[in-house]
């Protein structure tokens, strides 16, 4: 987000803005109670939650809306997701699909991105984003995708998560190899330094905060 740094908008971690680009009405809301009437139960509704007004405005602008009603209120609902649907498995875990891929993997000029899908089209927490950092590979993208899913879950108090990923590497790193890496000083069975150690440690730290199954 550019809020606070570029636009001098004071960041408030307890405040949310709800941008509705396609709903029963369109606009930016500061109250979830008012926003939900325009989007819940409406097939194809296009809306997202933002932490600052500037990002909400940019979302509306990208959707082609320049003039629309704006409602700003100092009162906020502490948990905006209480009425949002999630798909759950038989254990009651929220289901999320995380994937990453790279174009020209391993070559100069490679680009990579991640995708997070909560099993519902136009879900406000669905995400598509470029890989962060200079290393744009398939493996890095897959790790960052799982990290992003965990961060979103943690931020919105989702405590039990089922992550669907086709990355056997990520699953084995977390479930099979990690204990030996700690014993061996983060060196592999071939006595080589573990690749992607920093972001793998970020992921492991998140898995200690959230109950995750792959």
TrEMBL record:
One of its GO terms (biological process) is DNA replication, removal of RNA primer. Gene3D superfamilies: Ribonuclease H-like superfamily/Ribonuclease H, Ribonuclease H1, N-terminal domain. Residues 90-214 form the RNase H type-1 domain. Keywords: Magnesium. Its cofactor is Mg(2+). The keyword Magnesium applies. GO terms for molecular function: magnesium ion binding; nucleic acid binding; RNA-DNA hybrid ribonuclease activity. PROSITE patterns: RNASE_H_1. PANTHER family: RIBONUCLEASE H1. Belongs to the RNase H family. This is RNase H type-1 domain-containing protein. It comes from Bracon brevicornis.
